[in-house]
Specification:
Helix content: 25-40%
Order of helices and strands: HEHEHEHEEHHEHHEHEE
Number of helices: 9
Largest sheet: 7 strands, parallel
Oligomer: single chain
Strand content: 15-25%
Radius of gyration: 19 Å
Strand order of the largest sheet: 3-2-4-1-5-6-7
Amino acid sequence: MCRSVDVQQAVLAKNDDLADALREELTRRGVTVVNLLSSPGSGKTELLGRVLARAVERGVPVAALTADLATENDARRLARSGAPVRQVLTDGLCHLEARQVRRRLEGWLPADTAVLFVENVGNLVCPASYDLGERLRIVLMAVTEGEDKPLKYPTAFGSAHLVVTTKTDLAGPAGFDEAAFRANVRRVNPGVEIVRTCARTGDGVDTVLERALATRHAPPAHRPPLAPRPHDHGHTHDTPHGDTHTHGHTHTHEHGHTHGHEHDDARPHPEHPGHPARDGAPGHPHPAPAGTPTPAS
């Protein structure tokens, strides 16, 4: 078990070092990264598309990376906004890592970009452990998902600089108890701002964009209790039975969504004849931070 913990710490330490370097590099270039986390089906792609479109309308230079296990559907949807978009296909990996973000930005990110939005894989567990070089982490939740979601996923909600509720037009039919939800958020992340949004009506779109733009000039005012701390890489992910838990993952391959795919591998991919795919490689462990706050009784 000690060996497993050592490997987990090394994986996160390497990712954190890459994330720190990426953040410093992009900050010097005037680019701020926004990391979007949510469950599948929360509506974050639709909301992000609205945010990108609003930025384009206002003449704000933005770009987006979007990650999925398969298909380029989300990149095609986001590209309708008029903003530069690139897809990352993870082939089963349940989260993005800093190395993947850096790789996809090489030779692609427009020089005048103000904000890079990174739409993480739909998952509230794995992505919460990995810093992507972001200055702003947003966790989104649809009102249809239940008021107790922050208590079920305290690491994700506890590391957020901003919490966003989506599909608020469905709050009534879903019986969403907003007061209970806000109380649960406060239990794991006291003081975090909660923004109500609806992609269908446009409510909250400008607020999300403004919060992202604000981080270009200063770090977020709110400090989440589970925000990454320098050189604090001793994270483990324990199961309810007390056993250390790891995920074995294969290497990823990524596509550049510029209506032309980009790969650096050698053999054809079965879904895209003529395009290469990556050979499998030994998996690496997936930890999640320890120190998750215990909800108050």
